[in-house]
Amino acid sequence: MQTPAPDLNQRILDTLKAALLCLDHEGRITYVNATGEALLDASARNLVGRPFASLLSQVEPSTITAKLALGPIALTEHEATITLANGKSFIADYSIYPCGEQAGDGEVLVEIRLSERQAKYAREEFSQMQQPATQQLARGLAHEINNPLGGIRGAAQLLQRELDRPDWIEYTEVIINEVDRLQTLITNMLGPSNRPQRQLINIYEVLEHIFKIIHAAEPERIVIHRDYDPSIPTLMADRDLLIQAFLNIARNAVQAIDDRGEITIKTRIGRNFTIGQVTHALVVQIDITDSGRGVAPELSETIFLPMITDKADGSGLGLPIAQEIISRHGGMINLKSGESGTTFSIILPLEQA
């Protein structure tokens, strides 16, 4: 077996999800891979030769500085907070390994890997930032479409009054009915415009309402399991808006099942849960799981954008509206999908009156 060529070695190292940095006996960077460049917000050309410590914040010192000062010894730390000189801060697992050709020459390899918690926070933050922009785009598009629709409907009504042939009137009726259908679609795209009317509600009453609707619509095809935690207290929320959000997600679960299948609605309490940049002492998590075909991998990152759907007759509006409603309540929606089905996890802060 031949030894990989240097450029191949470089390409292999650049594909790693972990940042790799080689430091000499003075703590200067002698090598950094592509992941390290992205993590440190600088190119290898600007990083090589610089003291690694100069890249770290002096105001909020990181534990990695103290560990490197211990000398070339192997060690690992989990869930460490690393703050850079430019103010960027992240949570990571890091390891330090002696890597010199001779023992005691002081050269070390530093491996930094963003923790799952940090990666999850980054995804949530991106979703939170993305939602207002996409919603504003959808609202602007809806208004632009809605205005000419009103003119088309008015013109069709005027034309209908002048026609004396019933067969022609049928055509104007088609125009008016299709315009009304499109305007209803546009109204749904705009989503709920009113502010949440919060009051103390029982989450079980909301979920039981959803259960009755789905069970009445699909009594034979869909089996619904309920797994409720009875200890969940009441929460401050808008009952009608939550019903709309949960119903949109439940209907999405029904549509994901082609033949017969199952849906499970589960509730649990979560503690010290962070949503965006706010940590809540208590949250309620509602999981709606279906046994359907799962969400296509290429749609998993865009499923909450307006007009994105993998269903032939879907509007692509149900999930974005659900996300907006939950976001208004200070919550969030997570998606986990595979070949055996999909789970939408709705997390809502528990706030007493």
The 3D shape can be described as elongated
Question: How would you classify the helix and strand content by structural class?
Answer: alpha+beta
Q: Secondary-structure element sequence?
A: HEEHHHEEEHHEHEEHEEHEE
- Total domains: 3
CATH superfamily of the largest domain: Histidine kinase-like ATPase, C-terminal domain
In the CATH scheme, what's the topology name of the largest domain?
Heat Shock Protein 90
Q: What's the CATH architecture name of the largest domain?
A: 2-Layer Sandwich
Strand content: 25-35%
Side by side, the strands of the main sheet go 2-1-5-4-3
Distance between the termini: 70 Å
Give the % helix. 25-40%
In words, what does this structure look like?
- With 353 residues, the chain is α+β, with helices and mostly antiparallel strands.
- The chain contains 9 helices and 12 strands.
- The chain has helices at residues 6-14, 34-40, 44-47, 63-68, 116-162, 166-190, 203-217, 239-255, 318-328, and strands spanning 19-23, 29-32, 75-83, 89-98, 108-114, 199-201, 222-227, 235-237, 261-275, 278-290, 332-338, 341-349.
